[in-house]
Amino acid sequence: MHGPELSPSTIAVAAGRPARVPGGPLNAPITLASALVPGGGSEYGRQGNPTWDSFETVLGALEGGRALAFSSGVAASAALFDLVPIGAAVVAPRHAYYGTIAQLVERDRRGQVQLRLVDIDDTAQVIAACEGAALVWIESPTNPSLEIADIEVIARAATQAGAAVAVDNTFATPLRQKPLDLGADFVVHSASKLLAGHSDLILGAVVTNDDRAFRAIEKRRTVLGAIPGAMETWLAARGIRTLHVRLDRAEANAKELHRRLSASPRISHSRYPGFGTIIAFEVVAGPAAAQKMTEQSDIITYATSLGGVESTWERRRRHPGEPTSVPEGLIRLSVGIEDVEDLWLDIQNVLAAVA
Question: Is the pLDDT assigned to residue 296 strictly greater than 90?
Answer without folding.
Answer: yes
